[in-house]
Every structure is written in structure tokens, then in C-alpha cells.
């Protein structure tokens, strides 16, 4: 992103908008403070604002004043952070973006209630939508919100299941991660008055890119350069998380490879580095990295084929949105 890019300017305007909606002194004049301060806190934790930026740029493909939908774009970001606040409780995650999670800094009950208020506020931020589009936007938002919850429940269910197949996993990440990216893009297009077919193609683009992003995360967790990754490499292996890599390895491993993989999965007490090294070695032997990359790239290719087929009015926004997405795809952390 260059300083002169639309994205850079829009991110600045979005940040100002969010700060005005959720000022750092939110607790002053609003009671009880414990309910409102966590909202400002989580929204200030160095989020990339990717989802609302997708909405703004998708709008810009058709109209050149995307700042007109800052409220609706902010709704996407507020909803996303609401899900993170509640996910951290369910996952008992101590950190969010390197800082104390809300339920750690305050407590679980505060985090639940503050999250509830964020969901209500997301609806509030959608209300400036033109009357002829508001019903459709709310229906699509409700569908997306329910699907994100479905994905989270599937993810939690997987922890206690003996096995998960490839279809089940890909469907889970589609729901938990990809549908919100698709909605963010579709929202921008709909608000700009894009043709229904183009709005759907943008949604499908976001869905495919979203699944690809999660497969990329699975891959980086095992094979990333530790110096660039920003968190412990091999965390999914240590926790036996049923990622695409583990699912494929369990499917393909035979004989001694299967025995060794199941041995490490069953261990309760182990040296973390030893387990990561051993399981990564099995993955390398089975060609899991190449298999995952092929699956990931198939989603990226499908997504960009859909994107390239849309009818756009403003080429600069069209090209910028494509470049930002490609840059995210090639990230190393």
C-alpha cells in the first residue's frame, strides 16, 4: 500500500470513524464503564481492518465516494471483533494480538456482555443504509452471523471427535472465516448499486480467498520461518489441532508413519520441539506441504477467476483491491 493509494486514505478515515464511535474515554459518561471500556480496548488492539477495507474498496469499484459507507464498513469490523471477544472466552485464549484478551483483563462475564453490546452496535452501524437496501443488507448480515457461529461450533465439536474428514474441515473454515470476507465484499458492492451477479461474484471471490487464507495459515503454522512468523511455529502440531495438514497426513500415512503419527497424537507429556520436528518430518515424507499448497492455490485461482469476471466502473479501485488481496496471499506471517 502506497501513501497515495485509496486503501491508505480509506484506512485513515475508517480509523477516525471508529475512534469517534468508540472514543478512548468511552467509559466516561457511559455507565457502567466496565461494559464499554472493553469495546474500545479490543478495537484498539492493532487490527488490520482488512474486512471493512474490502467493503470500502468493493464500493469504490462502482462509485468513487466509498467514505459514504464508513458506518456500514465499521459494522463489519465491530462484528468481527465481537466474534473474537467471544471466541477467546470459548478457547480460553489468554492473548489477543499480543495483549491480554478481554476476559483476562476484566473477566468472562464482562467479556460476554461487552461482546453482546458490540453485536447490537454492529446493527446500529448498518442503519444508515438506504431504505430500499436495508432489508437485504440485514438479511445477508444475519445469515453471515449465524454461519460464523455455526463454524465456531463445528470447530469446537472437532476437538472431541476422533476424526474429521477433508470436506468437514473445509466447510468449517468456510463458515468460520470465509463467509465474513465474502459478505464484506458483497456489502460494498450492494451499497454501491452493483448488479446482483457482480455482487455475488465478489461474495464468491471472498469465500474462495477466505478458505485459501485459512489453508495458508495452517501451512505457515508448520512451515513458516520462525523469525518472520511472529508466533510459535508448530502450535497446531503441539495441540493436535485438526488442520488440513493433519487430516491429510492421517488419511495418507501407512505402516510406521501412521504408527509414529498416532504415537505423537496420543502423548500427554512430551518435549514440544521434539514433537514438532517429528510430525513435521512425517508431513515432509508424505508431501503434505505440496498437497496443502495445491488445495490452497485451487481456491485462490477460483477466487481470482470470479474477480476478473466482474464488471467494474473504476479500474483503479478494481486493481488496488486485487493487489491488496494478492499481497495478503503472499504474506509470510
Using brief descriptors, characterize the structure shown.
single chain, Farnesyl Diphosphate Synthase, 16 helices, globular
Can you characterise this structure?
The protein contains 16 helices and 2 strands. With 333 residues, the protein is mainly alpha-helical. The protein has one domain: Farnesyl Diphosphate Synthase (Orthogonal Bundle). The chain is globular, with a radius of gyration of 21 Å. Strands 1-2 form a two-stranded antiparallel sheet.
The CATH topology is what? Farnesyl Diphosphate Synthase
User: So what's the CATH class?
Assistant: Mainly Alpha
Oligomeric grouping of the chains: single chain
Q: Report the total helices.
A: 16
Low-pLDDT windows of residues: none
Q: How many domains, in number, for the residues?
A: 1
Q: What is the residue-mean pLDDT, rounded to a whole number? A: 93
DSSP summary, beta strand count: 2
Strands of the biggest beta sheet: in what spatial order? 1-2
Query: How many angstroms separate the termini?
Result: 17 Å
CATH superfamily: Farnesyl Diphosphate Synthase
Structure, briefly:
This protein is an all-alpha fold. It has helices spanning 6-21, 33-43, 50-60, 70-91, 102-105, 108-126, 131-160, 166-191, 196-223, 226-229, 235-238, 244-252, 255-266, 272-286, 288-308, 315-329; strands spanning 95-96, 99-100. The mean pLDDT is 93.
